[in-house]
Amino acid sequence: MPFFKVTLIRSAIGLPKKTSGVLQALGLRKRMATVFHPVSPQVAGQIMAVKELVVVSEVEHALTKAEMRANRRPDPGYYIETPASEALDPRI
User: Residue 71: left (phi > 0), alpha (psi -120 to 50), or beta?
Assistant: First the structure.
């Protein structure tokens, strides 16, 4: 079942209450917040009402909060790089 992945990019400060009400109905409260909604005409209409403020993509399945947090986490540890001279000359 496909889902809309909706991310709030621009703030609704200073916009009409109708616009901020649509954002609240979508579950978007802070900038850079992401929510997933099933694809339906009702949700598509809400997204069209705030299309200048959000970025939308269609995904196959919704991610949980834990999965989204894991995607943002950097790779653990660090990498040790060998100097170029050691990589070219095996005697060193």
Answer: alpha
Farthest CA pair distance, the chain = 72
Please state the rounded mean pLDDT for residues 76-91: 68
Has this prediction a pTM greater than 0.85? no
pLDDT top residue among 30 and 83: 30
**Spatial contact of 8 and 33, defined as CB atoms under 8 Å apart:** yes
Residue whose token pair is 């990498």: 79
Q: What is the amino acid identity at position 53?
A: L
CB 54 within 8 A of CB 7: yes
User: Taking the CB of residue 89, how many other CB atoms lie within 10 A of it?
Assistant: 8
